[in-house]
Write a structure and sequence with these properties.
A: 398 residues; alpha/beta; 8-stranded mixed beta sheet; 4-stranded antiparallel beta sheet; 12 helices; 13 strands; 27% helix; 21% strand; globular; disordered C terminus; B: 5-stranded antiparallel beta sheet
Chain lengths: 398, 345
C-alpha cells in the first residue's frame, strides 16, 4: 500500500450553542465527533452521508479552515493541528479545497487570472512573479478552459466552467491532497460527467489524492477507491469501494444504498428497499450508544447503551471496518461488471480533450488576450449563458 | 375522503368530465420571456397528453423548459415577462388559456394542483402549517375555521406526519425538510385534484427521505387515481415511478416513450447520451461517457436541430432542418433525423 499522506486521528468539532443575553453556552452541536482515517498517496477517499452528518465540517477540519475541538490531522506524518500560523501556511500548500457552489466560491470582482493566480501571491516562491500569468494559462488549459479567457470574470462562465476554475485554483500550488466538497452537486448530469472525467484525468497526471465529499452515492462509487459512510458526526463504516457497495455490513449503509433509485425501470418493484422511519436526530443531542439505534431495525438493548467501535468486522468475503454490534453483510446492489463494455462513441464521449473542444468554450472568438478594460466592457460580446441577447425571434417556425 | 375512479364535479357553470380518461392535453405550446436583453424562447411547440391514473415524467436539464411547462399548465407564470404566443392547454376539453381568470382560479386546487421543489420557500413562514392546509377548504369549499382545521389534521395524518394534532399549529421552520414536503403534498391533495404536478419534489432532500416521499406520492396517486406529472432531472427517480417519459431539450420535446422502452432503447442521441453519462450504482469502474459542450442559450437556439452542436451523429441536414417529433416505432416519438439508427444502435 502506498504511503499515507493525510491522517486524521479522532477528530472532533463541537460548535457551542449560545443562549440568552449573556450568551451562555447551553450545549454543543457535535458536528464531527471522533473520526479517524488515513488517506494514501494518489487514492480517492469518498465520504458519503446525508445532510447534517458532518461531512463538510470534516472537509474544513482537514484543510484546517476550522480548528478542531480535539484530535489531530497529520500531513505526511507531521501533525499540524497545533502548528504555528507560519507552519500551517506552509503545510496548506499541500492540501487544497474545491467548494460545492461554483457561484459563490469565486469572487465576482476578480478576473479568472486573479482567482487562479491568487495562491501564488501567498506562496510567492512557487512561481516567480514574471512567470505567473503563463502558469495560470497553463492551468486553465489543463482544466479544459481557453487560456485566452484569463481576463474574464466568473459571471461570464457557465456552472461547469466555474467549477473548472475552482479546480484550477485548487491545483495551482501542486498540492498532494485535494479536498472536494460536493464538487459536482450543483451541475447538470451531462456537465457533471465532464467534470468527473476531468478530475480523474488530473489525478492520473498529477498523482493527487482526493477526499471526495458528496451525497450522491453513484458518483462516489464511480470515483472512489475507498469509501467512508458518516452518520451524525461519526464514521459508520469505511472500506474499499467494493466492500462498502457490494457487502455493506452496517444497517445504515444498507438503508442508504437501498434508497438510491436505480435508472432501470425493469427493476421496479423487484429491488429490496429499506425505508427508514423518521428523520436524522439532532447532532446537538445525539442518541446514546449507537447513534443509529433510533432508526435501526436491528437495534437491541446493547445498542442503546454501548457505542460500537469502528473495527474490522467480517463481511462475508474478508473483513472491513464497521461500527455495528450486529454487523452482517447484506447484498443491496447487484454489481454488473461493465469494465469491458464500450460506450457507443457516437452519443457520448469519454475523452476529456474532446469535451473542451465540443463547445465548452462558449464564445467563438479568437481575440488574442483581450485587455482588462475590454473584459469589463458591457457591450463586448458575452459568452453564451442562459440569459442573454437574441438576434431575431421572428424566424422561428409558426 | 372518497376515492373516485371517474371524476365528475360541478364547479359553478362548468363540469369537468374527462373524455376517454384524457385529463390534460397540451398542444403546440410556446412560451417566451421578453427581457431587456431580448426574447428567450423557453418552450418551443410542446405537445403531450395525460390520462387518468397515469404518471408522466418530464425529464430535462436546467433550462430545458420543464418547470416553465408546469407553470404554464398551472397558470402561475409571471406575465409579463412571460408571453404565451400560441398553444392550447386543455383540461377535460376546456382550454385553460382562454378561460376567464376567475374560472381558472377555481380549477387551481380542486382540479389541477402542484408541489414545488423547495418547501421552505413555497410555504408561508408566518402562518401555521395547519392554517395553510385549512385555507384550501376555507376558500374553495367555504368551510368554517374549525371544520377546515379538522380536515387539515386528517390530511396531515394521511401524509404520515407524526403527532399531527399537536403539530397543526406549528410553523414551517419547525419541521424538517422531509416533513415540510409532506405538508406541501397535503396542501396539494387537499381538494382531491385530478391532476397533480410535482416539480422536482425530492431534489432538495436526502436519499432516504426521498425514498419516503416518492413512496407516499405513489401511494396517494394509486388511492386517488390522479394523473401525475413528475418533473425531474433524476433518471433514477423516473425509472422508479413513471409510466411514460417526455424528454425535453432547449424547449422542445425530443423524445416521448414508455418508460421501459426509453431506458432499454433510447431513440434520440440526447437521451442516449444522458443515459450513458450517469454513473450507476450497479455498474462499476470505467471512464464516464459525457455529452460534450453545453445546452444552448435560449435566446440563440441554433438553427436546425437544437442538439446538433453537441451531437456526434450530426450531419449537414441536422444543421439546417429542424427534425419534427415523429413516430419512429409503435408508441414512440423522437425528434431526430436519424432516430431509426439510434434505436438500432
Amino acid at each position: 500500500m502506498p504511503e499515507v499522506v493525510l491522517s486524521a486521528q479522532n477528530l472532533v468539532k463541537h460548535y457551542p450553542i449560545k443562549k440568552g443575553v449573556l450568551r451562555r453556552t447551553v450545549g454543543h452541536v457535535k458536528a464531527v465527533d471522533g473520526v479517524t482515517f488515513d488517506l494514501h498517496k494518489g487514492e480517492t477517499l469518498g465520504i458519503v452521508g446525508e445532510s447534517g452528518c458532518g461531512k463538510s465540517t470534516l472537509g474544513r477540519l482537514l484543510m484546517r479552515l476550522e480548528e478542531p475541538t480535539s484530535g489531530s490531522v497529520a500531513f505526511e506524518g507531521q501533525d499540524f493541528s497545533g502548528a504555528s500560523a507560519r507552519d500551517t501556511r506552509r503545510l496548506r500548500r499541500n492540501i487544497q479545497i474545491v467548494f460545492q457552489d461554483p457561484y459563490t466560491s469565486l469572487n465576482p470582482r476578480m478576473t479568472v487570472g486573479d482567482i487562479v493566480g491568487e495562491p501564488f501571491e501567498i506562496h510567492s516562491d512557487v512561481v516567480p512573479k514574471g512567470g505567473r500569468r503563463q502558469r495560470v494559462q497553463e492551468l486553465l488549459d489543463l482544466v479544459g478552459l481557453n487560456p485566452e479567457h484569463i481576463n474574464r470574470y466568473p459571471h461570464q462562465f457557465s456552472g461547469g466552467q466555474r467549477q473548472r476554475i475552482g479546480i484550477a485554483r485548487g491545483i495551482a500550488l501542486n498540492p498532494k491532497v485535494l479536498i472536494c466538497d460536493e464538487p459536482v452537486s450543483a451541475l447538470d448530469v451531462s456537465v457533471q460527467a465532464q467534470v468527473i472525467n476531468l478530475m480523474e484525468k488530473l489525478q492520473d497526471e498529477l498523482g493527487l489524492a482526493y477526499v471526495f465529499i458528496a451525497h450522491d452515492l453513484s458518483v462516489v462509487r464511480h470515483i472512489s477507491d475507498r469509501v467512508g459512510v458518516m452518520y451524525l458526526g461519526r464514521l459508520a463504516e469505511i472500506g474499499e469501494e467494493d466492500e462498502i457497495y457490494s457487502r455493506p455490513t452496517h444497517p445504515y449503509t444498507q438503508a442508504l444504498l437501498s434508497a438510491v433509485p436505480v435508472p432501470d425501470p425493469t427493476l421496479r418493484g423487484k429491488r429490496e428497499q429499506i425505508v427508514l422511519e423518521g428523520d436524522v436526530p439532532s447532532p446537538a443531542n445525539p442518541p446514546s450508544g449507537c447513534r443509529f439505534h433510533t432508526r435501526c431495525w436491528k437495534a437491541q438493548d446493547v445498542c442503546t447503551t454501548d457505542e460500537p467501535d469502528l473495527q474490522p468486522r467480517p463481511d462475508g468475503a474478508g473483513e472491513h471496518q464497521s461500527a455495528c454490534h450486529f454487523a452482517e453483510p447484506r447484498a443491496i446492489v447487484e454489481t454488473k461488471d461493465v469494465s469491458n463494455l464500450q460506450h457507443d462513441a457516437r452519443f457520448a464521449t469519454t475523452k476529456v480533450e474532446e469535451l473542451s473542444e465540443a463547445g465548452d468554450t462558449p464564445v467563438p472568438d479568437d481575440r488574442s488576450t483581450p485587455a482588462r478594460a475590454e473584459a469589463m466592457d458591457p457591450t463586448a460580446e458575452q459568452p453564451q449563458d442562459t440569459t442573454r441577447v437574441v438576434e431575431d425571434p421572428t424566424d422561428r417556425p409558426r | 375522503m372518497t376515492t373516485q375512479s371517474t371524476k365528475t364535479r360541478s364547479q359553478g357553470e362548468f363540469t369537468y368530465t374527462p373524455e376517454d380518461g384524457r385529463l390534460l392535453e397540451v398542444e403546440d405550446l410556446y412560451v417566451e420571456f421578453h427581457t431587456a436583453d431580448g426574447v428567450a424562447t423557453a418552450i418551443n411547440g410542446v405537445s403531450f397528453e395525460l390520462n387518468q391514473g397515469e404518471s408522466l415524467a418530464i425529464l430535462g436539464e436546467s433550462g430545458s423548459g420543464k418547470s416553465v411547462t408546469a407553470q404554464a399548465i398551472m397558470g402561475i407564470l409571471d406575465m409579463p415577462p412571460a408571453v404565451i404566443p400560441q398553444g392550447h392547454i386543455r383540461y377535460c376539453g376546456q382550454d385553460l388559456l382562454t378561460m376567464d381568470p376567475e374560472q381558472r382560479r377555481k380549477t387551481r386546487g380542486p382540479e389541477v394542483s402542484m408541489i414545488f421543489q423547495d418547501a421552505l420557500s413555497a410555504l408561508n413562514p408566518v402562518f401555521p402549517v395547519g392554517w395553510q392546509i385549512a385555507e384550501m377548504f376555507r376558500t374553495h369549499r367555504g368551510m368554517n375555521k374549525s371544520d377546515a382545521l379538522e380536515q387539515a389534521v386528517r390530511l396531515m395524518e394521511r401524509v404520515q406526519i407524526p403527532g399531527a394534532r399537536d403539530r397543526v399549529k406549528a410553523y414551517p421552520h419547525q419541521f424538517s425538510g422531509g416533513m415540510r414536503q409532506r405538508i406541501m403534498i397535503a396542501v396539494a391533495i387537499a381538494l382531491d385534484p385530478a391532476v397533480l404536478i410535482a416539480d422536482e419534489p425530492t431534489t432538495a432532500l436526502d436519499v432516504t427521505v426521498q425514498a419516503q416521499i416518492m413512496a407516499l406520492l405513489e401511494e396517494l396517486q394509486e388511492e386517488r387515481q390522479m394523473g401525475l406529472i413528475l418533473i425531474t432531472h433524476d433518471l433514477g427517480v423516473v425509472a422508479d415511478v413513471a409510466d411514460r417519459i417526455a424528454v425535453m431539450y432547449a424547449g422542445r420535446l425530443v423524445e416521448k416513450a414508455e418508460v421501459t422502452d426509453l431506458y432499454a432503447n433510447p431513440a434520440h442521441p440526447y437521451t442516449r447520451g444522458l443515459l450513458e453519462s450517469i454513473p450507476r450504482l450497479d455498474q462499476k469502474g470505467q471512464t464516464l461517457a459525457a455529452i460534450g459542450g453545453l445546452p444552448p442559450n435560449l435566446m440563440r437556439i441554433p438553427p436546425g436541430c437544437p442538439f446538433n452542436p453537441r451531437c456526434r451523429m450530426a450531419q449537414d441536414v441536422c444543421r439546417t432542418d429542424l427534425p419534427p417529433l415523429r413516430e419512429v416505432a409503435p408508441g414512440r416519438l423522437s425528434a431526430c433525423h436519424f432516430a431509426e439508427e439510434v434505436i438500432d444502435a
